[in-house]
Design brief:
Oligomer: heterodimer
Distance between the termini of chain B: 103 Å
Largest sheet of chain A: 3 strands, antiparallel
Radius of gyration of chain B: 30 Å
Radius of gyration of chain A: 23 Å
Helix content of chain A: over 70%
Shape of chain B: globular
Chain lengths: 525, 737
C-alpha cells in the first residue's frame, strides 16, 4: 500500500472537507432552532462555511502531498471550483425550502414545529454532497473513490424530494434514486472486475498493472470490461448517453435552485472520477506519458461523446419547459466536455477544466435568473411564460440572455472562449470529425438557446407572462449578478486563466503561452 | 493689403522651413525606434482606469437618482486627474524620448505551434510615444475643460439625464484613451468601436426627439461601414504580417518594404483608409457628422470637433510606415481630403444653422488634415489636428453658449449684435478669436498649421493641384466663418428666441436664471412677455477663456518654426512612428508665379483669408440685404440657379445615398423578407428544422417517464456497448484488447 503517505498526512490534507462537514452539522442544528432569525441564517451559514473552506484551500491547507495520487495537480483546482460553485448553489437555494411554512409561522397562522421544518437538513445535505465531491479528486484508491461518489449522490436524492412539496418532485427523487442505484451497481461491478484484473485497489498500482498489461499486448478482457463498466456508470453522473435518461425528468421535477445544483455538482464529481479512471487506464497523466487509452475504451468514449451531444441538443429542441430544455442542454455540454477526454491529457485536460469552470459560472448565472422570479408562488416553467420579462424584470432577462448566449458559445462571452479552447484542443489532437460533429451540434443548439434568450426580450408580453414577480429572497438574484458578471468579465482575463489552468493541470503551456517572441519575430519576417 | 501680405511673405520666406530641410532629406528612411517595455510606467493604466471609474460612478448616480452635480464632479475630477497623469508623463519624458510599451494585463494570447502566423497576441498594453502623448494631451485636457463646461450647460437635465450624459462622456474618454494608447490594432479597434458607441449614445441623448434618434442611427450605421473596412484591414494585416502589435508590425513593414506584396497587401491601406474616412467624416462617409449636431453642444465640441473625429488622422499617422509603402494610397488620402475640404466648405457657405456651419467647417478642416497626410506631412496634419482641436472646440462652445442663452436659437438670420448684449461679451470676443483662427488669419495658430500642409502640397508637382484646391477652400472658409460672426455678433442688437422650452419646468434652472439677471422676475418665457437671454456664468465663461488661451498658445510652435527654432510639435511627430512624414519639404525653386512654395502659400493664403473676410464684411455686415439680393440674382438666372440650390441642399448627397443605398436596400430587404418567409422559413427552416425535431420525436418514446423504461434503456445501452466491444476487440483477439 502507499507507504509514503501516513494516515495523519492524509487526514491533514482534508481540512476543507472537514470544514464543510462541520458546517453541515452546524446548519442541521440551526435549521431546527425555534428562533426564526437563526433558522433564516442557515443559508448564510452554508455560504460562510463554503467560503471558509475555500479560504482554507487557498491557504494550502488542502494538502500538498502528491504521493499515491493520480493527477494530483487537478485536485486543488477541482476542489476550488466545487467550492466556488457550491457558494452559488447555496445562494440559489436561500429562501427555497420551507418557504410557505415559514411565512405561515411569521404570520402567526401556524405554530413552529421542529418536526415540520427541513431547511436545516436540506442545507446539511447540500454541504455533505459538496463534501463528497471534494473528496473525489484526491482519491488514492477505489474504495475511497466509491465512498466519495456515494457521499456526493445520496444527499442529492433527498434534496430533490425536499426541494418542493409537490408529487412531481417526489416522483423525480424516486426515479433519480433508483436509476442512481442502478448506476452504482454497474460502478461497483466495474471496480470489482478491475480489482480482479489488476489485483489492487490502489489507483497508482492499478495504473502500473494496466500499463504492464498493455505493454504485454493489451489489457485483458476482464480489465477492459471493468473499465468500460466504470466509464458507463460514471456517465450517469455526467448525464451522458446512454445513462442520461433520468436527467430531463429529474431536472424538471426538482425546484430550479436544486436543478442548478444538480446540473453542475454531479457532473463535476463525475468528471473528477472519470479523469482518475482514464488516467489509471493509461490516458497519460502528468508525470509519465501513458500509452493512450485502450482502443475499446477510446472508441466507446468517442461514441458516447457523439451520442451525448447529439441526443442532448436534438432533445432540447422539442422542449417548452425552460428547465427541461436546460436539462438537455446540460446533457449536450457533457458531450462537448467528453471530447476533451478523447483528445488526451496534454491538450484535453486544461480544456476540460476551463470548460467546467465556464459551464459552472454560466449555469449559476442562468439558474440564478430563473430562480429569482416566480408566478403565483410557482416557478416559471414554460419559456413562453417568460415573454416580455425584459420590461418588468430587466435584470433577470439580461442574465438569462447573457447565460444563454454564453452557453451557445457566442463571442465574446465566457462560453465562447471555453468552446474555442476545447475545439482547438480536439482539432490539434487529430479528432477533426469530432469537432465537425460538435460544431453542427452547436448550430442546432442556437435554435433553442436563442429562444431562451430572445423570448424574454423580444416577445410581446402575453397574459401568462403577467404577474411574474421577484422571489422574496435576494440570494438567487445576487448569484445571478455575481456569476453573470463573471460571464462578462472573465473573458478579459482569458489568457491568465488558461495559463493558470495549464499550470494547475501540470501540462506544458500551449494555449495560453506567455509571449512567444520568437514566433512573433518569425512572423514579422 | 497686398503690401502687408507681401511683407509678411517676405518675413516668412526668410525662415528656414522649421529646420526641416536638412532633417527632411534623411527622414525618408529614418529608422523607427523600436519600443522597449517599461513596466515602471504601469501607473499609466490609471489613465484608462479613471474614466472607467467615473463611468461606473455616473451609472450609480443614475441608479440612485442623484439630483445634484455629483456626476459632473466625478467626471471632471477623473478626467482632470487623467490629464495630470498624462502631463506628468510628458514632463518626465520630454518630447524626444523613445517609444515604450507598458504591459497592463494579458488579454488574448493564443499559440498553436511554433513559427510565424502560429500565434495571436493582443494584450491590454499601452504603446506610448510622442504621437500618443500629443493626442492624449489634448484629448484629456479638452475633455476635462468641456466636462466642466457641460456641468453648467447640462444643468437643465439634472437627475438621471445628467448622470447619463456624464456616463457617456466618461465612456468616450475611456474608449478614446484606449484607442490612442493601444499597442495593438485589436485594442485600438476596441477603442474605435467604443468611441462609436459613446458617440451614438450622446448624439441620441435627447432620445425623445425623433431627429436626434435618426441622427444617432445614421452616425452609427455610417461608422459601421467604415469599421468594416478597419476590421478587414486588421485581418489582412494579421494574415500578411502575422502580428497586430505595433512594435513588431513596424519592423515587419520595414522588412516588407524590400519585398513584393500581393494584391491583398496593397489592399490594406485602402481598408484602413475606409475606417478612417468613416470615423473622420470624409467623402464618401461624411453626411453623418452634420446630423450629429443633434447631440448636446459640449458633445459636438468634444467628440464631433476636437477629438473623436481626429481618430482617423491618428490611425493613418500611426500607420505611416505602412502608408509610406503605398504611394497610391497616399495620393488617394490626399485627394479625398482636398475634395472633402472643398465640398464641405461650399455646403457650409449656404447653411443657416450656426452649429451646422461649424460642422461642415470641421469636415472641411479634417479634409485639410487628410490632405496633409496624403501629401506626406504627418507633421502638418498632426499640428493642424492640435490647433483645430482648440479653436473648433472654442467655436462650438461659444455656439453652445448662444444656444443655451437664446432658448435653442441657432439660426444666424435671427441673431444679431450679440457683442452688445449684456453677458455675451466674452462669448462674442472668444468666438471672434475662433473665427480668425479657423479662417487662418496671419500669425494665428490655424494659419501656421494650414500653411504647413499647403506648402508641402505645393512643393510636389504631383500634388500642386491639391494645394490650389486648398487655397481656394481657404477663401471659402474665411467667408463662411465670418458670415457667422458678422451676422451673429456684429451689427445692431436683434434676436428672437428659439423654440426650445429648455429649462422651463426646472425650478433650479429658473432660480439661477433669475440670479443671473438680477431683479428679473421672469426666466426665458418666450410666450408671454419679453424674452431675456440667459447669459453664461462662471463655468462656461472660464472654460471659454481657458480654451481661447489654449488656441492662442497653440500658435507658439508655429512661431518657433518661423524663427527657425526646434519646434515642439515637429519634435513630437519625429519621435513617433510617423517620423518619415515629420517634416516639410523646403523647395526654394519657384513653382508658380515665380514664387517658391512657401511664399506662394503665404501670399495667396493671406489673400484668400482677407478676401473672404472682406466679402463677408461687405455682404453680411455693411450691406446685409446684399446677400439676399445676390442669392435672388443667382436663383433668377437659369444658368446659375443650380449653384445656390445645390449648396443649400448639401449637393444632394443625402438624397443620392437614399437613392443609391437606402432605396435598393429597402427594396431588397422586402424582397428578402418575402423570400425568407416563404422559402427559408417555409421550406428550409421548417423543413430542415424538422429533421432534428423529427429525430427528437423518434427518440421521444424513450423518455416516457416510466422508471422501468429508463432503467431498461440504460441497461440496454450498456449491453449494446459491451456487445459491440466484445465483438470488435475481445472476440477478434481472443481475449486481449
Amino acid at each position: 500500500m502507499s507507504a509514503a503517505v501516513t494516515v495523519a498526512e492524509r487526514i491533514g490534507s482534508l481540512v476543507p472537507e472537514m470544514i464543510v462537514f462541520g458546517g453541515s452539522v452546524v446548519v442541521s442544528v440551526t435549521g431546527l432552532s425555534p428562533k426564526r432569525s437563526v433558522r433564516a441564517a442557515t443559508p448564510f451559514l452554508s455560504v460562510l462555511t463554503l467560503i471558509a473552506a475555500l479560504v482554507a484551500l487557498t491557504k494550502g491547507w488542502g494538502g500538498s502531498t502528491t504521493a499515491g495520487l493520480l493527477l494530483p495537480g487537478v485536485g486543488p483546482f477541482a476542489r476550488g471550483l466545487i467550492l466556488l460553485m457550491g457558494v452559488g448553489g447555496a445562494a440559489l437555494a436561500a429562501g427555497l425550502v420551507d418557504r410557505r411554512y415559514e411565512e405561515a409561522v411569521a404570520r402567526g397562522v401556524a405554530p413552529f414545529d421542529p418536526i415540520r421544518v427541513v431547511r436545516g437538513e436540506f442545507f446539511a445535505f447540500m454541504l455533505l454532497s459538496i463534501c463528497g465531491a471534494l473528496l473525489i479528486p484526491g482519491s488514492p484508491d477505489l474504495i475511497w473513490l466509491f465512498l466519495a461518489l456515494e457521499l456526493t449522490s445520496l444527499p442529492t436524492y433527498i434534496m430533490v424530494a425536499m426541494s418542493r412539496g409537490t408529487r412531481r418532485a417526489q416522483e423525480a427523487a424516486v426515479k433519480y434514486f433508483f436509476l442512481g442505484a442502478l448506476s452504482t451497481a454497474i460502478l461497483v461491478y466495474g471496480f470489482a472486475l478491475i480489482y480482479g484484473s489488476t489485483g489492487s485497489l490502489q489507483l497508482t498500482e492499478i495504473r502500473a498493472a494496466l500499463a504492464q498489461q498493455s505493454a504485454m499486448g493489451g489489457i485483458d478482457a476482464v480489465g477492459t470490461i471493468g473499465l468500460l463498466l466504470v466509464a458507463i456508470a460514471l456517465c450517469f453522473k455526467l448525464a451522458a448517453a446512454p445513462m442520461h435518461f433520468y436527467a430531463p425528468d429529474v431536472y424538471e421535477g426538482a425546484a430550479a435552485p436544486v436543478t442548478g445544483f444538480l446540473s453542475f455538482l454531479p457532473k463535476m464529481a463525475g468528471f473528477s472520477a472519470l479523469l482518475l479512471v482514464v488516467d489509471a487506464a493509461g490516458w497519460g497523466g502528468m508525470s509519465n506519458a501513458g500509452n493512450g487509452l485502450p482502443p475499446a475504451l477510446q472508441a466507446t468514449l468517442w461514441m458516447v461523446t457523439v451520442l451525448t451531444m447529439t441526443l442532448g441538443n436534438v432533445g432540447a429542441l422539442l422542449q417548452r419547459s425552460a428547465k427541461r430544455m436546460l436539462a438537455y442542454s446540460s446533457i449536450a455540454h457533457s458531450g462537448y466536455m467528453l471530447m476533451a477526454i478523447v483528445a488526451g491529457p496534454e491538450l484535453g485536460l486544461p480544456a476540460l477544466l476551463l470548460y467546467l469552470l465556464a459551464y459552472g459560472v454560466n449555469n449559476n448565472a442562468i439558474f440564478g435568473a430563473l430562480s429569482g422570479i416566480e408566478r403565483n408562488g410557482q416557478e416559471v416553467e414554460k419559456v413562453e411564460d417568460l415573454a416580455g420579462l425584459a420590461r418588468r424584470h430587466p435584470g433577470a432577462a439580461t442574465w438569462l440572455a447573457v447565460g444563454s448566449a454564453s452557453l451557445m458559445g457566442m463571442p465574446p462571452f465566457l462560453g465562447f472562449w471555453a468552446k474555442l479552447v476545447l475545439f482547438i484542443a480536439v482539432v490539434k489532437s487529430g479528432h477533426t470529425p469530432l469537432v465537425v460533429i460538435a460544431a453542427v451540434n452547436s448550430v442546432v443548439s442556437v435554435l433553442y438557446y436563442l429562444r431562451l434568450a430572445g423570448v424574454p426580450i423580444l416577445a410581446p408580453s402575453g397574459a401568462a407572462a403577467e404577474g411574474v414577480v421577484k422571489t422574496p429572497s435576494a440570494g438567487p438574484r445576487l448569484a445571478a449578478v455575481v456569476f453573470g458578471v463573471g460571464v462578462l468579465v472573465l473573458p478579459l482575463f482569458m489568457n491568465r486563466l488558461v495559463s493558470q489552468i495549464e499550470k494547475a493541470a501540470g501540462v506544458p503551456q500551449k494555449m495560453g503561452a506567455a509571449a512567444q517572441p520568437d514566433a512573433l519575430q518569425a512572423a514579422s519576417r | 493689403m497686398t503690401f502687408a501680405a507681401s511683407m509678411l511673405a517676405h518675413s516668412l520666406t526668410l525662415a528656414p522651413g522649421g529646420g526641416g530641410d536638412a532633417a527632411h532629406a534623411s527622414l525618408a528612411d529614418a529608422p523607427i525606434v523600436a519600443a522597449t517595455a517599461d513596466p515602471s510606467l504601469a501607473w499609466m493604466g490609471w489613465v484608462l482606469a479613471l474614466p472607467a471609474i467615473s463611468a461606473v460612478l455616473c451609472a450609480l448616480c443614475a441608479a440612485f437618482r442623484v439630483k445634484n452635480k455629483l456626476p459632473a464632479i466625478c467626471t471632471v475630477l477623473a478626467l482632470g486627474s487623467a490629464f495630470a497623469l498624462v502631463l506628468k508623463l510628458y514632463l518626465a519624458r520630454g518630447p524626444g524620448a523613445a517609444p515604450v510599451t507598458v504591459h497592463l494585463w494579458d488579454w488574448m494570447n493564443f499559440g498553436w505551434g511554433g513559427g510565424p502566423w502560429k500565434s495571436f497576441q493582443a494584450d491590454v498594453s499601452l504603446y506610448i510615444d510622442s504621437l500618443t502623448l500629443l493626442w492624449m494631451l489634448f484629448v484629456t485636457g479638452l475633455g476635462t475643460l468641456i466636462a466642466l463646461y457641460a456641468s453648467e450647460y447640462m444643468e437643465a437635465e439634472r437627475g438621471p439625464g445628467y448622470a447619463r450624459f456624464f456616463f457617456g462622456v466618461s465612456v468616450f474618454l475611456l474608449a478614446m484613451s484606449a484607442l490612442v494608447m493601444a499597442d495593438n490594432l485589436v485594442l485600438l479597434y476596441f477603442g474605435w468601436e467604443g468611441v462609436g458607441l459613446a458617440s451614438y449614445l450622446l448624439i441620441g441623448f435627447y432620445y425623445r426627439k425623433p431627429s436626434a434618434v435618426a441622427a444617432a442611427k445614421k452616425a452609427f450605421i455610417m461608422n459601421r461601414v467604415g469599421d468594416l473596412g478597419l476590421a478587414v484591414g486588421i485581418w489582412l494585416i494579421w494574415v500578411n504580417y502575422g502580428t497586430v502589435e505595433f512594435g513588431a508590425l513596424f519592423q515587419a513593414f520595414d522588412d516588407a518594404a524590400r519585398g513584393v506584396g500581393g494584391w491583398d497587401r496593397s489592399l490594406i491601406p485602402f481598408c484602413l483608409m475606409l475606417g478612417a474616412f468613416g470615423k473622420s467624416a470624409q467623402l464618401p462617409l461624411f453626411t453623418w457628422l452634420p446630423d450629429a449636431m443633434e447631440g448636446p453642444t459640449p458633445v459636438s465640441a468634444l467628440i464631433h470637433a476636437a477629438t473623436m473625429v481626429t481618430a482617423g488622422v491618428y490611425l493613418i499617422a500611426r500607420m505611416q510606415p505602412l502608408f509610406s509603402l503605398h504611394p497610391d494610397a497616399m495620393a488617394t488620402v490626399g485627394w479625398i481630403g482636398a475634395l472633402t475640404a472643398l465640398l464641405a466648405a461650399t455646403i457650409g457657405m449656404a447653411q443657416y444653422d450656426i452649429k451646422r456651419v461649424f460642422a461642415y467647417s470641421t469636415i472641411s478642416q479634417l479634409g485639410y488634415m487628410f490632405m496633409g497626410l496624403g501629401v506626406g506631412t504627418a507633421f502638418g496634419a498632426a499640428y493642424h489636428v492640435f490647433t483645430h482641436a482648440f479653436f473648433k472646440a472654442l467655436l462650438f462652445l461659444t455656439a453652445g453658449a448662444v444656444m443655451h442663452g437664446f432658448a435653442g436659437q441657432l439660426d444666424l438670420r435671427h441673431l444679431s449684435g450679440l457683442r452688445r448684449v449684456p453677458g455675451f461679451r466674452i462669448v462674442s470676443w472668444t468666438m471672434l478669436i475662433g473665427c480668425l483662427w479657423l479662417s487662418a488669419f496671419p500669425y494665428s495658430a490655424g494659419f501656421f498649421s494650414k500653411d504647413l500642409i499647403l506648402v508641402q502640397a505645393m512643393s510636389s508637382p504631383r500634388f500642386q493641384m491639391l494645394g490650389w484646391i486648398g487655397l481656394g477652400t481657404a477663401a471659402l472658409t474665411a467667408y463662411y466663418t465670418f458670415r457667422v460672426w458678422f451676422r451673429v455678433c456684429a451689427g445692431p442688437v436683434a434676436y428672437a428666441p428659439g423654440d426650445e422650452d429648455h429649462g422651463h419646468d426646472d425650478p433650479a434652472h429658473d432660480a439661477h436664471g433669475h440670479a443671473a439677471h438680477g431683479d428679473d422676475a421672469h426666466g426665458h418665457d418666450d410666450h408671454g412677455g419679453a424674452f431675456h437671454p440667459h447669459a453664461p456664468r462662471l463655468a462656461i465663461n472660464s472654460v471659454l477663456l481657458l480654451i481661447c488661451a489654449g488656441a492662442i498658445l497653440a500658435g507658439v510652435p508655429g512661431i518657433q518654426a518661423l524663427r527657425g527654432e526646434q519646434n515642439w510639435v515637429q519634435e513630437m511627430v519625429s519621435n513617433s512612428s510617423a517620423v518619415r512624414a515629420a517634416g516639410v519639404d523646403h523647395v526654394t525653386e519657384p513653382v508658380a508665379f515665380g514664387m517658391d512654395p512657401h511664399k506662394l502659400v503665404t501670399v495667396f493664403g493671406t489673400g484668400a483669408c482677407l478676401g473672404g473676410i472682406a466679402i463677408a464684411l461687405w455682404i453680411h455686415l455693411l450691406d446685409r440685404r446684399m446677400a439676399d439680393r445676390l442669392r435672388t440674382a443667382l436663383l433668377s438666372n437659369g444658368l446659375t440657379r443650380w449653384l445656390p440650390t445645390s449648396m443649400e441642399n448639401k449637393w444632394y448627397v443625402d438624397e443620392l445615398y437614399h437613392a443609391l443605398f437606402r432605396l435598393p436596400a429597402w427594396v431588397t430587404s422586402h424582397l428578402l423578407h418575402f423570400f425568407d418567409r416563404h422559402f427559408i422559413d417555409g421550406l428550409l427552416v421548417n423543413g430542415l428544422g424538422r429533421v432534428p425535431v423529427a429525430m427528437g420525436r423518434l427518440f421521444q418514446p424513450l423518455y416516457n417517464g416510466a422508471l422501468q423504461g429508463y432503467a431498461g434503456t440504460m441497461a440496454g445501452g450498456l449491453v449494446l456497448v459491451l456487445a459491440w466491444v466484445a465483438w470488435k476487440w475481445l472476440g477478434a483477439t481472443g481475449g486481449a484488447a
